Amino acid sequence: MIQLRDCLPVRGLALAGTVAALLLSGGALADQAARDAQDKAAAETVDTSRFKEEPPYKIGVSAGYLSNSWVVFALQHIRWEASKHPEVEEVIVTDAAFNPAKQVSDIEDLLRQDIDLLLYWPVDDAAIADVLQRAVDAGVPTINTGGGFTDSPGTIANAYISQWSLGEDVARRLMEDLDGKGKIIAMLPIAGTTAAVDQLDALKTVLKEYPEVELLTAEYGDWNRAKAKQITENLLQRYPRIDGVFSPAGQMSIGVAEAFEEAGRLDEVTMSPGDEYNGWLKWVAEHRQGGAVTFPTRAGQVAVQKGLKILKGEPVTRGTAVKDPFISPENVDAHVDMEAPDDWWASELPPEFLPER
């Protein structure tokens, strides 16, 4: 989702100005304005004729990090989709290992290898804005792959997952399970990221409809199971009553649930839906609670499809939202793999493209 930053892309100034003005007139109105503005920007048609190239194509993938299992599965979706197109001769992957400066260097190196298309997921959006713009200026289209929507001029298109919609769905299902009453905590991804900002905004917007629900605190577990567990252990000492947990990310949800269980307080809490992280799905299958609002790893596949259209000079929309359907606790058995490790993702990848277990 679009964020108001200190330095905004020129193309987004009018859009951000509209949203900023609405902030003065009330939170709910501003939230709706932000959603409407993003939807409008995502639906914008991009003229890609300047990027038209004759095959074969070389795809560069700049990974901000590859240590996260979701990212590994998204990358495999990229490779799977590329394998379906004989015009793609090579996929080159770099790993910045959470280092923004290295990601800039990685992209520069990919450009020196004469890539035709750049897919990326960032460590820090602002840190790579300049090098993405240089890629576009050099005739290499760029696609933000997974995560939230960006309207930066250095990003030609997005294969994105609406963090606001995901957060809203998770929040509403949690409110239903709590019957609209109680004290809750929120476990969010990395502070300052689009995912964390939008999920919290969505939660707070939904909470305006439920005056009998109190948000005790919002914490940041960095998509990390161990960190989320440690944070929750501290929260359990601080708060004698916690009725519910808002946690859209399954890696963190399982850590939170483990902390409650070890403290002997699991029976008192209602967990929100997580995502299709296999460890979380196993927990849902055992406890028949929560379910999952999916965070589809096939975003990588959608990015390749969108990129090939651009290389053929076909117009595309600036954003393609990858849908995130709900898996109910009653239907989780069709998605969980009890034999696979926790650090695994439900997907439609064929066996030859699945990561090693």
Automatic annotation (TrEMBL):
A Pfam family annotated for this UniProt entry: Peripla_BP_4
Keyword Thylakoid: no
Keywords from the UniProt entry: Signal
Principal location class: other
Domain Periplasmic binding protein stretches: 59-314
Signal peptide: 1-30
Subcellular compartments: Cell envelope
Similarity comment: Belongs to the bacterial solute-binding protein 2 family.
Protein name: Substrate-binding domain-containing protein
